[in-house]
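FORM 7B: Structural annotation worksheet

SECTION A. Query
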Amino acid sequence: MVHVKFQRIRLPALAPMQVLLAGALLLVAAVVLAAWNATRFAWLGLEFQPEGERGLRVEAVHPAGPAAGLLRPGDVVRAVLREGETLSLEGFNPALGPHVLPTFDGYNRYLEFQDRLAAALNDGVVTLLLEDGRKLEIEPRTERPLQALPLDFWLFHLFGATACLIGLFVWVFRRSEMAAALLALSGGGFFAATWQHSLWLVRELALPRSLFELLLIGNHIALSVLLGALLALLACYPRRLGRGRWVMIGIAAGIVAVQVNELLQLADWPMHTFCMPLLLYYLGAWSWPSCSGDSRRVIRWIGPPSLGVSVGVP
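SECTION B. Predicted structure
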């Protein structure tokens, strides 16, 4: 009988600076991917400002955009016309994040309208109905100049990448500590949330529902990971709670329950379906038994930006 002896292959451990360099390169690649996607949405070369029942006022016209020479700042667009269908822009806010709306019903209605509007923009030539009665035919482009992306797009990536690199920096020098791993996980969650938010942030009027909803779901999961990791961090640092493992299991179960409720749209939360769970994470961390003064200062610094990433405030 032949005996074959297997030996475990040990991969060489990467030095801290090698891990940091690899992480930084991955972040750069992720930002490049986001920019590539953002420049492929339907583009009219217009900036809009909601004007309530009047429609959308043109704030700026990009000189290289399809609408250059056809519209000027101050014009008001009342509707988009598509195959006999009038998509009214009265009371519509193109920059709204659907999860700002407090119920699943409002969330779904906004995404439904976004889908119809995106279909009109992607059909080729689109007809805009202006307040003065004029009808303008414009063909949106599917390539947008990189310099036309707003500053907020880059700021979101700057904030997210900074948080991710801080967590990674701590972890590479303390790989055996759970607290360092949780800090790195929270930084990764922050970057994932800002990455997805940056993509719906740059839309002019609309995104297809399938894409928009995918980005929203990913953003919500990433925010739950960020805040859940923060709660778990408080369970083991600066001092470990007696039943730290069960606390972490409970946090994970809470995250899963919240996300399942959102995915299946089972029940609206009181007051606000999307912000209430985030607020509970934040309040739970603030009132944590082991939360020191320094920890509360960190929570005060992390909490508002986390909620901002969710509701659309840079």
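SECTION C. Observations
The chain has a mean pLDDT of 86. The helical segments are 16-38, 104-121, 151-173, 178-201, 209-236, 244-264, 275-286, 293-311.

SECTION D. Sign-off
Analyst initials: ____
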